[in-house]
Amino acid sequence: MVKKNYIYLFVVILFLVFSIFMLTRNPALKTIKLGASLPLSGINQNLGKEVVIGANAYFSHINARGGIDGKKIEFIYYDDKYEPEITQTNIEKLIKKDRVFALFDFVGTPTVKRVLPIIKKSKIPFISPYTGASFLRDPKTENIVNLRSSYKEEIDALVRYLVKNRSISKFSIFYQNDDYGKEGYIALLDALKKRSLSLQSEGTYKRNTLFIKQAIYDIKSNMPQAIILVGAYKPTARFIKKAREQGFQNVIFCPISFVNADALMSELGNKAENIIFSQVVPSYSENTKIANEYRKTLAFYYPKHKPTFASFESYLAAKVVVRALKNLHGEINPKAFLYSIKHLSSNMLDSIKIHYKNSQLLNRVYLSQFLDGKFKVLAQKP
User: With 70 as the cut, is the pLDDT of residue 342 above it?
Assistant: First the structure.
């Protein structure tokens, strides 16, 4: 009898040890944790909140239908106020305390650059950061997968359109004086050099401020025909308002995607004359299967919230992550997940084609204008 009890106790202990081993081996056994650091307060809070809303709309949709083989997706996010020092604290918390399976939807070039060494060292999947920075497109860093096209591609598309379709030859730039702005500045110089053009003038502002007066003065000293805008939406909106007051009425303003087109229009009271927008996803207003699905899902989970480019892009990123997870056979682990996300079907986002190259899944830029309350894609010469 005593011998049987020992055998029984041994079996129980063996089972407990095995269970603990399995839980430790696969922390995503019951939930799949994704983690982000993004601005939820401060001057760029609108963008961070839009990103969270877009992702959570789709994750909520999936969780309501059983998740990934019974595993729910938990999206954990912390506010960094668009300040790199806070981003570093947040990423350490996500990795060490929350033990996330993947880092997802981080926002900002200077913030992400600050934690790049941690991302590389951890080898945790770093998916769909909301930035087009070139340093995130190094094929040697295998755990980084971007959704969006790069800032270099966006700015080249803007310059190409303006030169070919509008006969523009005089360009200036307004940019945030940090890693984000410098990415745009270098991209513009390259785009102009390709076309034997040179920069007319430049103006900068400090991150998380609205001090744009000097930038207007510096740019006006050699008046351009078009200004590339590489900033956050609030200082960019103030720049456009003040520039219009200072005689820039015939100048074309060209904000890139990070500027946050919807928030910019709100700040400008929908006064969109002479503004050409660069985007990395098509308009959410289009009558396509994927855009209709996004608007329907957003309306269900966030009925008071209007569609935006930022939440649409984040929705698409969440959809990509879910599809990559569902395509796995067997244990969900980082290596298998990264392989899966890099080999998704080109049609999985329906009319928005994906193809993994240059460390990114989307490889197209959309130029648009805001007309009759909607963003409409511009026709371009071949």
Answer: yes
Which of 313, 311, 235, 241 has the alpha carbon at shortest distance from 44? Answer: 235
Distance from the first to the final alpha carbon of the chain:
88
- Beta strands per DSSP E along the chain: 31-38, 72-79, 102-104, 126-127, 144-145, 171-176, 199-205, 226-230, 252-255, 277-279, 366-371, 374-377
Instruction: Look at residue 269 in the predicted model and tell me its pLDDT.
Output: 96
Q: What's the pLDDT tens digit per position in 318-329?
A: 999 999 999 998
Domain ranges in the chain are: 31-149+285-364, 151-279
Q: What's the topology of domain 151-279?
A: Rossmann fold (3.40.50)
> Which pLDDT band, with edges at 50, 70 and 90, does 28 fall under?
very low
CA angle 10, 15, 18 (to 5 degrees): 125
Q: Given a cut of 60, is residue 206 above it in pLDDT?
A: yes
46 three-class SS: helix
How many residues are given for the chain?
Answer: 382
Q: With respect to CATH, is domain 31-149+285-364 assigned 3.30.230.10?
A: no
